[in-house]
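Could you join me in thinking about how sequence relates to backbone shape in a protein? To get us started, please write out a protein record for me. Would you write everything just below, so we can both look at the same thing?
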Amino acid sequence: MAVIAVVHGPNLNLLGTRETHIYGSMTLEKINAALHNAAQPNHEVRPFQSNHEGAIVDYIHAARDWAGGILINPGALTHYSYALRDAIAAVKLPTVEAHLSNIHARESFRHTSVLAPVCLGQICGFGWRSYLLGLQGLLDHLAERSSPT
């Protein structure tokens, strides 16, 4: 069984009401429920949301003691948080970056992720399903890594 730390960054607590033409109408609570359902019966997800960079860094540090991997939607921290990038690199947990919108088709400042170089991969543009796709990719990676070749 894998335990996955799910990290939701700034402003994601407003999903379902915030710029629904970009982020959709699915609430964070419903996304977390969908992740729980997708992970069961063999895996567990532990969601965490904060609007504070330091709290997210602390959660990632703590996850090294109990998580097999991280699924993260860092929100705007994607583009400038070297502290978050360094935390992901430091804990050495396989990490998948997920975004609701296609960040590469939006404003130019959103095109660069400072986290991508320390992540397994990035899923974006599939709305709330980006989380499910990221979770599946992460679980598949963990399964392949643990199975004998």
In short: The mean pLDDT is 92. Strands lie at 3-8, 44-49, 69-73, 95-99, 121-124.
